[in-house]
Design a protein that fits this description.
This protein folds into two domains: 2-234, Cytochrome Bc1 Complex, Chain A, domain 1 (2-Layer Sandwich); 240-315, no CATH class. Helices cover 29% and strands 20% of the residues. It has nine helices and 14 strands. The chain has helices at 2-18, 104-110, 166-173, 186-193, 217-232, 240-246, 264-272, 276-288, 310-315, and strands at residues 34-35, 48-49, 55-56, 61-63, 66-68, 113-121, 126-133, 139-144, 150-157, 196-199, 202-203, 207-214, 249-251, 260-262. Strands 1, 9, 10, 11 and 12 form a five-stranded antiparallel beta sheet that branches. β6 (113-121) and β7 form a beta hairpin. α1 runs antiparallel to α5. It is globular, with a radius of gyration of 20 Å. Residues 18-51 are annotated as: Disordered. It holds the Pfam family Peptidase_M16. Residues 160-241 form the Peptidase M16 N-terminal domain. GO terms for molecular function: metal ion binding; metalloendopeptidase activity.
Length: 318
């Protein structure tokens, strides 16, 4: 837990520092998920820009008990929604960062990060720098450009072993309150009351992504803080009711009716499995990769979701 808190604090400070403008430095070249309800229909993005001309993004992928990461760039085209910040979801002020004249690599080193690589991406007129946290192994990718939209994304490796939908249920559940923001659904409060241009979460067959974006600097760091606290310190691992709400539970409205299964993810996946094209895509993928994570459904099969227990669910984030 101490390592997680250290990574959260260090990553957030580096994100703030990377948001300051700096010159492009040439370097050697290198080489449809499920989503939560959102007010934007655009694609997910994982790089962010500062209103002063810089941009940055933090991407981390994690296996159980081990933090590792990979970063990538996605273009963002999302409409903005100008609303007043919701009071319950406002974070504390960001920690002070060095002046623009300070070297970002030296500041990263002070936070425990080392530079792995640096490259100019001509296609999007950006400078990308990859850092690695020495103590945890998590990686941070900064993509700096002159776009006014600031975007952040954190990504965890979540390869499932079965089709009970653990990654999908966890994606929903971690945004239902955290240690610092003990609300019922901070995600909904942010949708209603923040200045976000993008706010969502995605479950892929092998990873889970949590992206946010805003053109307002203060709002951007508030969104980052809420999301980081949600993924590192979720309340759902101690709350059986959240598991029942987002995953599955029994429901009986009257003695004359039969007991049925209900739940946010369960109902969502029932809808997915009612569409022939979705079934064809899943069956084809599982037939091509029967012996690995792509041979099961990370979103959850309605026939298998009720097999998931709370004990199994709460052990995944740890």
């Amino acid at each position: 837990m101490e390592r997680v808190a250290l990574l959260r604090t260090s990553g957030r400070r580096l994100l703030q520092r990377c948001g300051r403008p700096r010159p492009l430095v040439p370097a050697a070249s290198s080489s449809a998920p499920r989503r939560r309800l959102t007010s934007s229909s655009s694609a997910a993005s994982s790089c962010s820009s500062s209103s002063r001309g810089g941009s940055s993004c933090l991407l981390a992928a994690a296996a159980p008990l081990h933090l590792h990461a990979a970063g990538r760039y996605w273009p963002l085209t999302a409409p903005g929604f100008a609303r007043r910040l919701s009071v319950p979801a406002v974070s504390t002020s960001p920690s002070p960062v060095p002046s623009d004249t300070d070297d970002v690599h030296e500041y990263a080193a002070k936070l425990g990060f080392e530079k792995v690589s640096e490259q100019v991406i001509d296609e999007c007129k950006s400078a990308a720098v990859l850092y690695k946290h020495k103590k945890t192994g998590a990686e941070v990718m900064s993509v700096a450009n002159d776009d006014e939209n600031k975007v952040f994304g954190i990504v965890f490796r979540t390869p499932p072993k079965n089709s009970t939908g653990i990654p999908h249920i966890l994606e929903h559940s971690v945004l239902c309150g955290s240690r610092k923001y003990p609300l019922k659904e901070p995600f909904v409060e942010l949708l209603k009351g923040s200045l976000h241009t993008f706010l969502n979460a995605f479950t892929y067959p092998d990873r889970t992504c949590y992206p946010v974006a805003s053109t307002n600097t203060k709002d951007f760091y508030n969104l980052v803080d809420v999301y980081l606290d949600a993924v590192f310190f979720p309340k759902c691992v101690e709350d059986f009711q959240t598991f029942q709400q987002e995953g599955w539970h029994y429901e009986l409205n009257s003695p004359e009716e039969e007991i049925s299964y209900k739940g946010v993810v369960f109902n969502e996946m029932k809808g997915v499995y009612s569409q022939p094209d979705n079934i064809m895509g899943r069956v084809s993928q599982q037939a091509l990769s029967p012996d690995n994570t792509y041979g099961v459904d990370s979103g959850g099969d309605p026939n298998d979701i009720p097999k998931l227990t709370f004990e199994e669910f709460k052990g995944v984030p740890q």
